[in-house]
Amino acid sequence: MKRKMIGAAASYIAGLFFASFFMGAIPFLIIAAFAAIIGILNKFSKYDYILISVSFVLAVTVSTCYTHFRYDNVTSYSGKTADFSGEVIEHREYSADKASYVLKGELGGMKNVRVVVYCDDLNVRYGDIISFNNCVFSGIDGDYLTDSMDYFRSERVFLSIESYQNADIEHTGTRKLRNAIIDYRERIVSEFRMTLGEDAGAFLSGLVFGRKQGMDDEILTSFYRCGIGHVLAVSGLHVSIIAIALMSLLRLLKVNRFIAFGLMDALLIMLILMADSPVSAIRAAIMMNFAYSAHLFRRRTDALNSLSAALLLICLVNPYAVYSSGLILSAAGTFGISVYAPYLTGKFPTKGLHWRFARAFCTMLCTTVCIMPFTMKFFDETSLISPLVNVFIVPLCSIVMVIGVLYVITGGLISLLGIAGALVEIILDVSHNISQVWAFYFSSRSEKAAEYAIALIAVVALVRIIFVKRRYTAAATAAACAMVFISSAVSGFRFNNQFTVAVLGRRHNAAVVVSYHGKTQIIDLSGHYKSAEYVKKYLAENGINTAEFLVLTKNNQSQYAAYEKKLESVDVGNIVTVGDTPVIGGDSEAVPHDSDWELYDDKFAMNYSSGVLTVNYGEAHTAIIPIKSEFTDGHEDGLNVFFGTGIENESNTDDTVYKSSINGTDNFEITLKESGRYRIRRL
User: Fold this and answer.
1) Which CATH number among 1.10.10, 3.40.1350, 3.30.200, 2.40.50 corresponds to the domain 81-174?
2) pLDDT value for 297
């Protein structure tokens, strides 16, 4: 094995993934078979086999020990009550004077335990100490809306504070540098928005600092549908452009190369801290250091070696980094743009404008192919036009980014924000228009589709290992993409021909989406302020762009505003408010009804009365019932779904489901058959 760093890193990371996600005999045999095939074809020596075996076993051991001695011990406090005092190491502010804090302190003799708490804004800073009395701890669970479990696990946060009696704050005055950097960032963000306006300023803030808070949901959706959402996460693109621009300037000024290297690192560290230290940016900065240090010391390096070493370093420090979607997407994109694309385009002629465009397009295409399975897993929609859009839009984003960074470095003394604003308007208009074309993106449908796509990546890798030649690898890649698109189309066809009732919402709240033959009805039963977000995610995940009815039953005015905002990209035909009070404002006209609402079609009927929604399809009957209603016995025939507080300890039966985050049926989809049968799938 010529490049042992790649073998060691690949084996170690494979061991971490095995221990974290795929523990079992069959995954182990598949990994072993892959390693054996690679070894035989590349004529590994016995020392090479020892290296990859030791790396794999070491990773499994480290991950298992970390889980047993750290994760399990910390999460054993879930459901227990204790005092906790910790230093603020992360904090975020939300609307309505709410905030979240990540604290690092001691718990049960364990040092450096990290917990997260969502509470009122306590007006604290990095380094301050918060002491909570009589905390009730809980484990961090995943949710249909956000996979907070994996995110916090990758950040080594394993507990949350569910409730507490009181909080004491000690303003320590420490972490002055970080607080100063954050204050400076907030000042710059404010200046961006004041100068460019809310949308353009928010976009520039996201481009420079990776901050998506405050960005309009419709703009974010359009970026992801176009495949340029990655520019709003500080990663390799940002680090590369900033480093190359700075080093080119310093080279023109004939600055000593060692001093230039130090200045580059100082700038990257500052920008990474301003972006809240995302692991994708850290990975890119490590790779950039490898590249420039090799130049300093007259050594050779390549992208695959640098990527392998960077991932190995990150995973050695944090075995749970493999849970980070940012790291996975960043690594896949970097592999595509710096390893896979140069390999497939290696025979392209270098002269001629059309060949340069072809190379750029193929590079973006290879990058899209590499990250597609993971965008299917982590996002609701995947762009098909990403390669073409990136060729034209990313250069514009790069110019805007450089202007923004120049403004940051000079404190606004060099301001080209007028030019940036004009370019941002072009980017926003183009992305909005492209995102309206449904053929340019497809919906993820389910995690199984993503897992299928990831398995196809392994098949393509196997083809490359066995046959080596570019044309076979390219053909395998094209076939894999075609199979993904066909499977997505088949899945969409099946969904449109099924009668589904999705019960969505945060914990005990319920919003119902009924879909059949391209027709969709949305009925919000509990009026929770987050229900619109759950509905938006479900519609996007299943490629639903239109809805016949939106029925609001509680908190109608606030819910009307929430759905107007979240469902901007969905064409809602009729909005019905149950009750005598019509809603005010908005672009759509709401039609008030009395206390009942019903809808009939050839094969199904829906009725809302006294807080209960009944759905009938052929011989199948379903009722979604508040637990505190008068119909607590449910309907005698069919499936009864109960929602509301006070059902944590109830058990599901064949014809009764209790919507509760405790028993694992927080968000689910019911598929009804005309014969009266039904199937429940957890979302």
Assistant:
1) 2.40.50
2) 75
Do the bridges between strand 519-524 and strand 110-120 make them parallel or antiparallel, or are there none, so unpaired? unpaired
Cα distances from 495 to residues 502, 516, 617, 681, in angstroms, run: 12, 8, 16, 13
What gap in Å lies between CA 625 and CA 576, rounded to an integer? 20
- Confidence (pLDDT) at 286: 92
The Cα 333–Cα 478 span in angstroms is: 18
Which pLDDT value is given to residue 159?
Answer: 95
Closest CA to 404 of 427, 421, 391, 383: 421
- The predicted pLDDT at position 647 comes to 63
Residue carrying structure tokens 């290296």: 51
Q: Classify residue 587 as exposed, middle or buried by CB count within 10 Å of its CB (0-12, 13-18, 19+).
A: exposed
Domain locations along the chain:
4-75, 81-174, 178-314+340-444, 451-495, 497-682
User: How far, CA to CA in Å, does 257 sit from each of 248, 253, 402?
Assistant: 11, 11, 22
What's the pLDDT at 146? 81
Beta strand residue intervals within 141-284, DSSP E: 159-163, 166-170
- Report CA dihedral (361, 366, 371, 375) to the nearest 10 degrees: 50
- In angstroms, the CA 158 to CA 110 distance is 13
Superfamily of chain region 497-682: Ribonuclease Z/Hydroxyacylglutathione hydrolase-like (3.60.15.10)
Regions of the chain with pLDDT less than 50: none
Question: Cα separations (Å) of 313 from 9, 59, 87?
Answer: 9, 12, 26
Q: 209-238, pLDDT tens digit by residue?
A: 988 877 888 888 899 889 888 888 888 888
Q: 3-state SS of the chain: helix, strand, coil percent to 5? A: 50, 20, 30
